[in-house]
Structure formats: structure tokens, C-alpha cells
UniProtKB/TrEMBL annotation:
EC class: transferase
Name the record gives this protein: Ribosomal RNA small subunit methyltransferase I
Family: Belongs to the methyltransferase superfamily. RsmI family.
Organism: Flavobacterium proteolyticum
Key word Methyltransferase present: yes
Keyword tags: Cytoplasm, Methyltransferase, rRNA processing, S-adenosyl-L-methionine, Transferase
Function text: Catalyzes the 2'-O-methylation of the ribose of cytidine 1402 (C1402) in 16S rRNA.
InterPro entries: 4pyrrol_Mease, 4pyrrol_Methylase_sf, 4pyrrole_Mease_sub1, 4pyrrole_Mease_sub2, rRNA_ssu_MeTfrase_I, SAM_MeTrfase_RsmI_CS
Xref: HAMAP family: 16SrRNA_methyltr_I
Length: 227
């Protein structure tokens, strides 16, 4: 039976790959990979010989129609990204939506994703939170910050290393120097680190010691006052 499988892959430590993910990747007719060179190393490690096609943000608009036709013809396809769960700040949404619209079964396997461990180990409230992903580079950036100034839930951002200090400075500007912040980098990898403190304290830390690697930032929400 045709089906699209959304398959999470490790964000760093290969031991986070699930038995089920390996089984699915070995059994499907085709694997769609964000970067076939990166995913090729993963497949080789787990002795997965399934054929791969490239599926990334630059070609996904063009490939969706053909992939839907292949699924309708009875094929099974697995979608993976370079790391973590596809469609979370990665390609995957367009194909998933097209499958849903065409009555094709979609199944997302549970597995690795960066923002959940970053949120849990931040020490910030996690009963309610909002995932913001990557902030706009230029257009709409200030508007996004202004819209979040009254956000009371913990906010989660993906930030590239070379933009971290700028982003932390903007947290100080828009949320206040005392707003609690937690920066997790290289989650599940050898040099995993989480730095917690006020926005101002965390900014000073990374000004003195520039960050490297994959980064997730959690920011405490605005505390509601009574009255």
C-alpha cells in the first residue's frame, strides 16, 4: 500500500536512530533526502541500500507533483532531512500537504528533534510554549520581535552561530536585559553545552566565547502580573 513515511534522523549522536526508522528506510521503495551526500553517510552506517533522490527547499516545489503520482501508483516513500524530524524548519510540509489533499496515507515516526531537549533542559516553563524557528533575516524581523513582546509562553528559536550575538542583543532590546534565556548547542554531540541566565548575562558569555555548532535558544515569556 502506498504511503509517505516521515522519518526522523539523529541530530548528532547516531545511537539516537530508532530500530523502526532503520526498518522503514530499508523497506520503502525510495528515500527522499535533503542532502544525499550527508544522508549517504547515515545510510551507509546502518547498511541501508535503498535508492535516494534529492528533495530540498530549492526543488521541492517542482518535485511534489511527480512524487504524488509515484505514491498514487503504489510506491512507498520515506522522507528524511539532514538531521532531526523533517518539516520542522526543514523541507517536508509541501509534500505532506499534497499527500493529505490526495488521500495518500502519511505516517510520521517519533524520533529526534532539536527543540524538545533544548526546551526540557532549559529550566524554563514548558507546560505552554511557542516554536518560532528561524527569525527573518531582515524584512519582518523587527515586526516579529514586536509581536512577541507580549508573549507569555516560553519561546523557542533556531539560531545560526554567526547570528547568535546579534539575536541575543535583540532579546535584550525587545524583551529586557533580565529576561531568562537558555542557549543549547551541539545537542547529543561530544561538545554539548547549555548556557542559562538573563539575556544580558548570556550575551556577555558568548561575546567572550563565540558559539559554534547547531543552536537552539529558549526565551522565557512575559510574566503576567495580577491586577
Amino acid at each position: 500500500m502506498s504511503k509517505l513515511y516521515i522519518v526522523p534522523t539523529p541530530i548528532g549522536n547516531l545511537e539516537d536512530m530508532t530500530f523502526r526508522a532503520i526498518k522503514v528506510l530499508k523497506e520503502v521503495d525510495l528515500i527522499l533526502a535533503e542532502d544525499t551526500r550527508t544522508s549517504g553517510k547515515l545510510l551507509k552506517h546502518f547498511e541501508i541500500a535503498t535508492h535516494m533522490h534529492s528533495h530540498h527547499m530549492h526543488n521541492e516545489h517542482k518535485t511534489v507533483e511527480n512524487l504524488v503520482k509515484r505514491l498514487q501508483a503504489g510506491e512507498t516513500i520515506a522522507l528524511i532531512s539532514d538531521a532531526g524530524t523533517p518539516a520542522i524548519s526543514d523541507p517536508g510540509f509541501l509534500l505532506t500537504r499534497a499527500c493529505v489533499e490526495n488521500g495518500i496515507a502519511v505516517e510520521c515516526l517519533p524520533g529526534a528533534t532539536a527543540f524538545v531537549p533544548a526546551l526540557v533542559n532549559s529550566g524554563l516553563p514548558n507546560d505552554k510554549f511557542v516554536f518560532e524557528g528561524f527569525l527573518p533575516d531582515k524584512k519582518g524581523r523587527q515586526t516579529r520581535f514586536l509581536s512577541l513582546q507580549e508573549e507569555y509562553r516560553t519561546m523557542i528559536f533556531y539560531v545560526s552561530p554567526h547570528k547568535l550575538n546579534k539575536t541575543l542583543a535583540e532579546f535584550v532590546q525587545y524583551f529586557g536585559a533580565d529576561r531568562p534565556v537558555s542557549v543549547s548547542r551541539e545537542l547529543s554531540k561530544l561538545h554539548e553545552e547549555t548556557v542559562r541566565g538573563t539575556a544580558e548575562e548570556v550575551l556577555k558569555h558568548f561575546e567572550a566565547k563565540p558559539a559554534k555548532g547547531e543552536i537552539v535558544v529558549c526565551v522565557g515569556g512575559l510574566i503576567k502580573t495580577k491586577g
